[in-house]
Amino acid sequence: MSAATTARPEKAPGPLRHRDFRLLWAGESVSQCGSAATRVLLPLIAVNALGAGAFTMGLLNAVAWLPWLLIGLPVGAWTDRMRRRPVMIVCNTVSAALMFSLAAAAWLDALTTNQLLVVSLLLGTADVFFRAAYSAYLPTLLPAEQLADGNARLQTSESAADVVAPGVGGALAQAGSAAVGFLADGLSFLVSAVLLARIRTPEIRPGAGERVPGQKALAREIRDGVAFLTRDPFLRTILVCDAAMNLFLAGAQSLAIVFLSRTVGADGTLIGVLIALAGLGGVLGAVLSPRLARRVGTARAVLLCAFGAGPFGLLIPLTGNGAGLLVFLVGEFFLMAGIVAGNVVIVSFRQAYCPPEMLGRVSSGIRFVMYGTVPVGSLLGGTLGAAVGNRDALWILYAGNALCALLLLKGPLRSLRDLPVPVADAPGQAMGMIQAPHTAPPGDLGR
């Protein structure tokens, strides 16, 4: 037997071997820490300092996601026409300026609910552009076989930020140091922009020589992306389920801070600690997701995450003060674990499955539907909270979220072990689709 036949194959290098991926990962990790702190700080300031009620909290969450309904589809087509990295740098820079405006207003004791609403709307607009570019950018830095691991690392960082930063945000709100928190978040956006600017991998403008500028061409490109999405049974089934879950979860999340603060009676520091500890569930989900997909199959992993996580949300309305706060922690921990693990598998599948030249449009089409339900759900949560009380509203919303998993049984996932992945039949031939029985598909995570 020759040495060639006895030698073990070399293990493929991981994504951290790539300098430019490390820069992207580091920048997003820093930015996510700042944003995770602000996600706790901002609503606590609205509730405790500005006297916001359940409906106002729902409105505040709604305006942050409203841009997805207004511009989500055309932004996907626009980002398919341009290089993604400059778009991401501009979005981070604009977001930093907006956070600095909140820091200045808080420092001068001039912060108002109206300013929070306007800044949330503008931050949401920048986020639409960033996510559309970001979701299609990772394949520029990593080969297809490393995308799943890259996704998992990015999601792990985001989940780790949800563990470390919320406690800081809650403590800052309790101490009346909103300006410091907003300033730190603004600086985190700037750090991310600087690290993105240092990436060296060349990026070719997508389809620059194939597209004809103009509104008709843009409309046609949007239609093409929507048609690809609506005709495909895998993408369509997952999207319908995710959008419905987002509707109920957005309503529940819009009430979480006001529920813990006013109904349960927890202070800002304790709320931040609870949310941080619950974020460990997201870390666990991100770490275990690739292993889960390889062990049970990607299609089964999606079903397991959806059906396994939803019922834990029903523990959250049972939360009480003192030891009763552990109920919130357990429910939120396992709910987050399932959501994050399923997200890694689903978005990884989408990244590998969609044609590269349509990825921005398809990704934005998906986010248009998914995130478009968030403002509706947030207003639903705020309205329910004002009408029946925060606790009863949470019962309704988490029950609805758990039932949404049944929508996955309407499509082809229920009979498969794995979701399909693309494969070239032979050099020079078109790309086909096969079932990969023992591997998790590569993919990409949005912000």
Query: Which radius of gyration do the C-alpha atoms yield?
Result: 22 Å
What is the rounded distance between the termini?
50 Å
By DSSP, the count of extended strands is 2
Uncertain segments are 1-12, 208-213, 423-447
| Widest beta sheet: strand line-up | 1-2
Shape: globular
Helix content: over 70%
Structural class: mainly alpha
Number of helices: 15
* Average pLDDT taken over every residue: 79
Order of helices and strands: HHHHHHHHHHHHHHHEE
What does the main sheet amount to?
A: 2 strands, antiparallel
What is this structure's SSE topology?
Elements lengths: L2 H4 L12 H31 L4 H26 L4 H24 L5 H29 L5 H29 L2 H20 L17 H17 L1 H32 L3 H11 L1 H17 L1 H12 L15 H29 L5 H30 L1 H14 L16 E5 L6 E5 L12
Antiparallel strand pairs: 1-2
Describe the structure.
The protein is an all-alpha fold and 447 residues long. 73% of the residues lie in helices and 2% in strands. It contains 15 helices and two strands. It has helices at 3-6, 19-49, 54-79, 84-107, 113-141, 147-175, 178-197, 215-231, 233-264, 268-278, 280-296, 298-309, 325-353, 359-388, 390-403; strands at 420-424, 431-435. A two-stranded antiparallel sheet has the order 1-2. A hairpin with a 6-residue loop joins strand 1 and strand 2 (431-435). Helix 9 runs parallel beside helix 14. It is globular, with a radius of gyration of 22 Å.
